[in-house]
Amino acid sequence: MAEQQLNAPPCASPAIPTSGIRHINRRHPDRFTVVGNHLGQHRHLSLAAIGLATHIQSLPAGAKVTIKCLTDRFPEGEVRVAAALRELEAHGYLTRTRERLPSGRVITRTVSYNNPPALRGISERRPPHPAAQPKPISPKRPAPAAPETPATPPAPVPAPHSPDLDRHRTALTLLTDLRRHDPRLLLAERDVRRLAPAVAAWLERDITPEAVRRTLTADLPGEPIHRPAALLAHRLTVLLPPPLPASPPGPRRPDPLQNCDHCDHAFRAPEPGLCDACSAAVAGSGGDAG
């Protein structure tokens, strides 16, 4: 009897790669984040941007992702973190919008997108064939377009009561020099000229240039400042101190001591002459006491 032959060879174990990466995967029961290969293998994002996007997607809603918070968390500096955030914005993984609160404070709203290609696919999807679309029962007239709202001009800033050329020059120098204290306070020349009267109004009220500079640069937000001129205009307007009250008159100084021209006794009077007794004697005699 012939030896029994198997119809198919037994299944071979998967070959271990001789080069390249080898994965040993274990299932995560909790505390994990799903990251798409469109991000992990992105051809145009830097490693810093890919890592930052992964970190942001792993955070809970409401977590702080400002440049200051990220630089406190990671060894990268502000320049590298800011560049990575701009990369993520350019490729649709992040949006940052500025919003002014009723209190006047400006904040940044940040939204993270874990799958921008899917969003683009929805927006770029072709519309269905006209035959498949239901016909409208009755045509509707298009709603009239809302009138465009004219751009709001910038709010007026304080101005000095009396012009002073030296004070105006000091204000121009102070505003131009702010970028030495914080590079985010880089102003255009037209903004420097527009804000100079407001700084001159502070100087007119006996505020020193150093005190004005401290007010403008103190407690700045730890994130990019997209409109430094608007921020400075707001502070110069809202924080303008009142003028100093007029100094009260001091006590009247006594008259200086004088020697009487007749009796040589000392007495107080604004000018030299006769004392009160000699003046009375002269008045009673109707003539000169001498």
Question: Helix and strand layout, with pairings?
Answer:
Layout: H1 37-40, H2 47-58, H3 67-73, H4 78-90, E1 94-100, E2 106-112, H5 116-124, H6 165-176, H7 178-181, H8 189-204, H9 209-217, H10 228-238, E3 257-259, E4 266-268, H11 276-285
Antiparallel strand pairs: 1-2, 3-4
Description:
By secondary structure, the protein is mainly alpha-helical. Among the domains are: 83 residues, Winged helix-like DNA-binding domain superfamily/Winged helix DNA-binding domain (Arc Repressor Mutant, subunit A, Orthogonal Bundle), CATH 1.10.10.10; 74 residues, no CATH class; 26 residues, no CATH class. Helices cover 37% and strands 7% of the residues. It has eleven helices and four strands, in the order ααααββααααααββα. The chain has a two-stranded antiparallel ribbon with strand order 1-2. The longest helix has 16 residues. It is rod-shaped and about 160 Å long. The protein starts with 36 loop residues before the first helix and ends in a 5-residue tail after the last helix.
